[in-house]
Write a structure and sequence with these properties.
single chain; alpha/beta; Rossmann fold; Arc Repressor Mutant, subunit A; 2 domains; four-stranded antiparallel sheet; 8 helices; 12 strands; 38% helix
Length: 237
């Protein structure tokens, strides 16, 4: 998932960016609202984390401006202010959640997962498609394999599905979009931020790798010409 971090404190921003990057987000950081408004005109983001105490234009004004421009990505506000009025004002300006500094990274990650689920109408951090299961909190993927005969009956088993970091990013995006198709351009944006460069063909490489891992378990990845890819159940002969 591609995340925009808007924070003017370099030290704080560096720590947040490192933590989010280690959690699998493609993080782009800007230090002002003006720069944030500029980059959101040309780049797409899945979610934004915005500090309220920005210079010139503050985080609340930025959130309002993003909503006025039609941006619908979830926005989480960070602030040192803990007054009820400030929290209410932030939500009224269009923020989806609000965290008070200082905070612990695990809680930030949990809140971001919840916002992403809500934006995609998912109800759990565990995503499922047929036999495939993706636990976004633990960053673990597994496949249900055929039941094994046991005394007194049979039991279905789950086996781990090994995914590389970028394979995980593509898989997570596909699962959040399912059963709708995932846009190829947005998949590319989810894979990389400004400090990394990959070619559009890279998406096809990761799709090919995922097909090889999923098709033996009855899950296909259909190419939608001119748009992207969609998860589908494969019906056997």
């Amino acid at each position: 998932m591609r995340l925009l971090l808007v924070e003017d404190d370099v030290l704080v921003a560096s720590g947040i960016k490192l933590g989010l990057s280690n959690a699998g987000y493609a993080v782009d950081w800007v230090g002002s609202a003006e720069r944030a408004l500029e980059v959101t005109q040309k780049d797409g983001f899945d979610i934004a984390v915005i500090d309220i105490g920005l210079p010139a234009i503050d985080g609340l004004q930025l959130t309002q401006a993003l909503r006025d421009q039609g941006h619908t990505m979830p926005v989480l506000i960070l602030t040192a202010r803990d007054a009820l009025h400030d929290r209410v004002q932030g939500l009224d300006k269009g923020a989806d959640d609000y965290m008070v500094k200082p905070f612990e990274l695990p809680e930030l990650l949990a809140r971001l997962r919840a916002l992403l689920r809500r934006s995609q109408a998912a109800t759990s951090s565990v995503l499922r498609f047929g036999p495939l299961e993706l636990d976004m909190a633990l960053r673990q993927a597994s496949i249900q394999v055929p039941a094994q005969p046991l005394a007194g009956g049979a039991a279905a088993l789950r086996q781990p599905l090994e995914l590389g970091p970028r394979e995980w990013t593509v898989m997570e995006y596909l699962m959040l979009q399912a059963p709708k198709p995932a846009n190829k351009d947005k998949l590319l944006q989810a894979l990389t931020g400004w400090d990394k460069e990959i070619t559009p063909n890279a998406v096809e490489v990761y799709i090919s790798r995922l097909r090889a891992k999923l098709e033996p378990h009855g899950i296909g990845l259909r190419s939608i010409r001119g748009f992207g890819y969609r998860l589908e159940r494969v019906v056997g002969d």
